[in-house]
Design goal:
- The protein is an alpha+beta fold.
- The protein has one domain.
- The protein has 6 helices and 9 strands.
- A 6-stranded mixed sheet has the order 3-2-4-5-6-7.
- A hairpin with a 6-residue loop joins strand 8 and strand 9.
- It is globular.
Length: about 190
Amino acid sequence: MRLIFSHGDIWALRLLRPSTYEIGGSLHVGENGRISRIDYKQGTSCRNTHGKLIAGAICSVTHPRTPTVFHTHPKANRPSSGDLRNAVQGENTHVLVTPSGIWCYRASPQLVSEWRQMSETQRRRQKLEWRFVGHHHQNDTQSGITAPFIAFCKQRGFFIEYRPYVEMTDALKTWTIMMGPEKKINA
């Protein structure tokens, strides 16, 4: 799977990202890897206007199962354990738009195969491990230090890349991300 982001794509995705709830949907990607259309819907409110979690609220959005889906995070700068699980179960490419940058990730065929063979207890434990490690790296990812979290995800069978917005400011440039065994990144 190849995704090519233009400066306009980055700008549009950033504009969609609200600070009080998540948005999710599908990215329609042409054979050339370019985004041709974005369909989206709003999730439930989970943060107040000051960015604080609303008591009892859960940040989430339901998006369709399509080859390439996206969602936003109002505050967190990494995929959650639920996001990683959804990539395994959906067998699709996920684009996560955060306050600091864009994540692209998908589960490898080997990880999908292993997941299918797991019992519900094993799946629950796997998700708990992803959650624990994500929380362990939370302060770092919020500060833009993403390499340790990315290394963990790759070790666990994910194709995953992160691009901070500060690296994507050239209006005349595109950014290509390959999600698969032939993964190559063109900066």
